[in-house]
């Protein structure tokens, strides 16, 4: 019973983790593109909710763009001139690092100055944390304990999916290592046979050369 209680406690801690960051974004002229990007790895098919709170700042325009670093360069959202609180939900298309990039453009009639900046409060909720369980409980008329159990079920499923992903990755790495070892083995054997062939050819060549010069019989 104690073991299950400990596991439940750990899952509750995991489920309450929220990844967030707060920083000041300096304003730059329109002819200078200065992007500040925050990245996080997210697996495929995962619900992500990006919540952005932009502080007050006059004569400045904050734009945001959300993409990943996969070969397809998927774009999950783009907004211009955001102000106050903005929520951008999406579901990832592939395993990749998802980047939330900001630019703060200063109006053309103003000169750059350290006083021109806006405070960005960024929260990235991934998987179970991205689901609004209060709305879900109201929609499905769930009791508080049922809603919490639904949340724990989602967290456990994410852990299982992550373990399965790690297992597949380990299998790919093992296959790559075995393939590399096989290639090295055949390359080494080929090198030995080539060296033996060259050695035999050199012996025969030198023997014929010395016989031609009548240095040996």
From TrEMBL:
TM ranges: 186-206
Protein name, per record: Endoplasmic reticulum vesicle protein 25
Keywords: Coiled coil, Membrane, Signal, Transmembrane, Transmembrane helix
Chain ranges of the GOLD domain: 35-126
Subcellular location(s) of the protein: Membrane
Keyword Nucleotidyltransferase found: no
Topology in the lipid bilayer: Single-pass type I membrane protein
SMART domains from the UniProt entry: EMP24_GP25L
Pfam families in the cross-refs: EMP24_GP25L
GO cellular component assignments: membrane
Residue stretches in coiled coil: 142-169
Organism: Glomus cerebriforme
Signal sequence interval, chain numbering: 1-20
Family listed: Belongs to the EMP24/GP25L family.
